[in-house]
Amino acid sequence: MTTDPHAVTAAILVIGDEILSGRTKDKNIGSIADYLTAVGIDLREVRIVPDEAPMIVEAVNALRARYTYLFTTGGIGPTHDDITADCVAEAFGVGIDVDPRARAMLLERIKPEDLNAARLRMARIPDGADLIPNPISKAPGFRIGNVFVMAGVPAIMQAMLDEIGPTLRTGARVISETIEVGNIPEGAYASDLASIAGAHPGVSIGSYPSMTQGGFLNRIVVRGKDAAAVAAARAEIAALVARLRA
Amino acid sequence: MTTDPHAVTAAILVIGDEILSGRTKDKNIGSIADYLTAVGIDLREVRIVPDEAPMIVEAVNALRARYTYLFTTGGIGPTHDDITADCVAEAFGVGIDVDPRARAMLLERIKPEDLNAARLRMARIPDGADLIPNPISKAPGFRIGNVFVMAGVPAIMQAMLDEIGPTLRTGARVISETIEVGNIPEGAYASDLASIAGAHPGVSIGSYPSMTQGGFLNRIVVRGKDAAAVAAARAEIAALVARLRA
After folding, report:
1. CA atoms within 13 Å, Cβ hemisphere of A240
2. Is residue A96 predicted with pLDDT exceeding 80?
3. What are the domain boundaries of chain A?
4. pLDDT, tens digit (0-9, with 9 covering 90-100), for B101-117
5. What is the pLDDT of residue A1?
6. How far is CA B156 from CA B16, B161, B242, in A?
7. Mean pLDDT of chain A
8. Quick one: pLDDT at residue A3?
9. Counting beta carbons within 10 angstroms of the beta carbon of residue B96, is it exposed (0 to 12), middle (13 to 18) or buried (19 or more)?
């Protein structure tokens, strides 16, 4: 799938010390991954970096150059440790200032007399960016080039993703078929599965063990964008599993 | 904390298409993060990459050069999509072959007549690596240089982490103090908090909003390795919050 020149690709950049310290367990990577897969965008890479400008700028520039889209989460609040907008402006080499459109959005929720300097930080938007509305707490995200800058709070991130979803170029949806293997050990089918994978280069085939109270439980997943190719590989794997069960 | 030349730092590399597709939700990042924080190792970066050799090799080399330790998870099973060991060997420029010690470990669980070519893949270890025992399913992980290669199944990863923990050089533990702010909005304290942060450069201060049924709930976290410095910043923040509540 990676060699498809028409593939729409993406990366996620999670920004925040609190994820790296373990204090907060990230929930955004999994939900963005589900979303992108559902619309046919290949998530190719994820990075998590601390609230430090050099690392954020480097990651933004590395990832936006390499993929169709980059989605960032975190660091767009009013406090001193929220530096994502400034870092994205630096990565693009553009200015950043209070954006009147963003200021107006904040005023939908905040009284004018309460719009202090800290809150106005949430209206600082890099020059040339489009805003991403935030239906929950109003402080917007933004899009600049192929980079979408979203909040870290999962409910707000999800609302922003719903806002930008319709604007994304999407690819052919990946069809995914799961073959339940039960407790047949991976080692008993790995060689045959490798042969099937070799004979079906148009699909990707993975074997995923998980542990349950009763021991290992294995699943084989076939993924691809061509329904016939996925079905053909799936049929061969199902036959293999049936032979092993017999 | 990042400028401390004695700091022990780490990165995590999660390897697997199933995480990027959203099919499997990663649980290892959070538990490794907790573990490292508890022993005074600063987790500085995380990457998630697909089961593709060029991306794995590039990430291994980028991260092992930059941090004290690199921990990888995933891709060490018997199936064709498990390519982590070969990629790590390639990253280090060393050979890889079936390791007699690893083969012996597999034979603790697998009958000799069942030790087929696929299962023997789990005994392929880069030249010069030390093994990481796997008390659950026997197939070992390994350490080469500053890179620890672990399984992706969370229970096995955890068991391997427990095995290697005592061998790690650890740093000063980070002390973390949380000040509950309740529903006082971040924008009401952000400026004062920035002043406190500026006056306490030896600690890191973060403000973390979360959403509950009743609206936002904010917490301020002070982190640092010097107990007195953390306590001093904590006291100023507690006084600030008390003033805002009054």
Report:
1. 22
2. yes
3. 8-167, 175-245
4. 999 999 999 999 999 99
5. 44
6. 16, 9, 46
7. 94
8. 55
9. middle
First CA to last CA across chain B, in angstroms?
A: 34
- Looking at residue A234, its pLDDT comes to 97
**Contact check, Cβ <8 Å, A211/B18:** no
Q: Which residues of B touch A194 (CB under 8 A)?
A: 79-80, 118
Q: Looking at the complex, report in whole angstroms how far the Cα of residue B231 sits from the nearest Cα belonging to chain A.
A: 19
Supply the pLDDT for residue B191.
95
Topology, domain B175-245: Alpha-Beta Plaits (3.30.70)
Instruction: Share the mean pLDDT of chain B.
Output: 94
Closest CA to A31 of B95, B130, B22: B22
CA distance B158 to A40: 33
Residue A195 CA to residue B80 CA, distance in Å, equals 9
Q: What are phi and psi of A141, to 5 degrees?
A: -90, -170
Contact predicate A144/A85, CB 8 Å: no
Residue B146 pLDDT class (50, 70, 90 cuts): very high
Residue B139, pLDDT > 80, answer yes
Best B2, B15, B21, B115 member to test A by mutation, with max A CBs in 10 Å, is: B21
Distance CA B99, CA B126 (A): 8
Collect contacts of B100-106 with beta carbons under 8 A, ≥24 apart: B101/B125, B101/B131, B101/B140, B102/B131, B102/B139, B102/B140, B102/B142, B105/B131, B105/B133, B105/B134, B105/B138, B105/B139, B105/B140, B106/B138, B106/B139
- List pLDDT tens digits, range A119-157: 999 999 999 999 999 999 999 999 999 999 999 999 999
- Neighbouring residues of B61: CB distance < 8 A, sequence distance ≥ 6: B91
Judge: B221–A25 Cβ closer than 8 Å, yes or no: no
Rounded Cα gap, residues B121 and B89, in angstroms? 14
Looking at chain A, how many residues does it have?
Answer: 246
- pLDDT for residue B2 is more than 50: no
Please state the CATH superfamily assignment of the domain spanning residues A8-167 in this structure.
MoaB/Mog-like domain (3.40.980.10)
Exposure of B104 in the CB half-sphere (CA atoms within 13 A): 5
Token digits of residue A222? 């076939």
| 3 state DSSP class of B187 | helix
Joined together, the tokens standing for residue A114 give: 């309460």
**Whole-Å CA distances, A235 to A202, A240, A242, B205:** 15, 9, 10, 56
